[in-house]
Write a structure and sequence with these properties.
single chain, 261 residues, mainly alpha, 12 helices, globular
Length: 261
């Protein structure tokens, strides 16, 4: 329970209790609960999405709210990591300079532009998915779960690029048991929604691993910013997968018919 609360309060704006004496090892042990945090966030998004859609339907405003919900619930934690990653990873500099840029608390114009483009794509995907409300609600539910499982894989499968930092504690304490538990949570949450959602989970995993492998080759490992970038990009990949499923007649059978509004 302590690890779950630590993960919840670290990854979101939800504060339940005071934890003044946490150690770096406590944060490291909380990695196994990342997908449970995703489950909490997904449940909140599903509930809010259901209420809003029931009363207002899909519109530009409701689509914007759905895109903003993950940012409001997490305080933009992963968005900051995404922008720092773009600034550093695609700067064309040396490995050492990339890491310096990513550590800089200031955000560059490249990161801001990339984040704006990502939000615009998310908005367009959510607006299109509004034509299939069940698909949209399922996507809102599962994408924070799948994205945080991708984070767990990033933490466990790739070395930490810096000699010290919280991310190093995450990596050192994320063993096979952590990955197995996080994966089981993601799989249990995906299975009831059919093969289309299992495909979305597979896409999230493969996309996250491909991006992390690319980043690790350039930096010699990953950082906390890259964990956040993995989460943000994986959520977009999940939305894009559902968008493909509702637009390709050959793929709609994977949704089992519940895409029909």
């Amino acid at each position: 329970m302590k690890s779950f609360i630590t993960a919840l309060q670290f990854l979101t704006r939800i504060n339940l209790v005071s934890q003044p004496d946490l150690t770096i090892e406590d944060f490291g042990r909380s990695v196994r609960c990342f997908t449970l945090v995703g489950l909490v966030l997904g449940s909140i998004q599903f509930l809010i999405g259901s209420v809003l859609y029931s009363f207002l339907g899909i519109s530009y405003v409701t689509a914007a709210i759905f895109v903003l919900l993950p940012i409001l619930l997490t305080g933009g934690l992963h968005c900051d990591g995404f922008m720092d990653t773009v600034d550093g990873l695609f700067s064309g500099r040396s490995r050492e300079r990339m890491l310096e840029i990513m550590k800089d608390s200031r955000t560059g114009s490249f990161g801001v532009v990339a984040f704006g483009c990502c939000l615009l794509l998310d908005f367009a995907l959510v607006l299109d998915l509004g034509a299939a409300p069940t698909v949209l609600l399922v996507a809102l539910f599962v994408m924070p779960i799948f994205a945080r499982f991708s984070m767990v894989l990033a933490v466990a499968a790739f070395p930490y690029a810096r000699p010290e930092g919280m991310g190093k504690a995450f990596h050192e304490m994320a063993g096979r048991g952590t990955v197995a538990f996080a994966g089981a949570v993601a799989l249990v949450c995906a299975a009831p929604w059919g093969p289309g959602t299992l495909l979305a989970l597979a896409v999230a995993v493969l996309f996250g691993l491909a991006f992390d492998r690319y980043a690790a080759k350039k930096l010699g490992g990953l950082t906390g910013d890259l964990y956040g970038a993995t989460e943000k990009l994986t959520e977009t990949a999940v939305l894009f997968t559902y968008w493909i499923l509702i637009h390709l007649p050959q793929a709609q059978m994977l949704l089992g018919g519940w895409h029909i509004s």
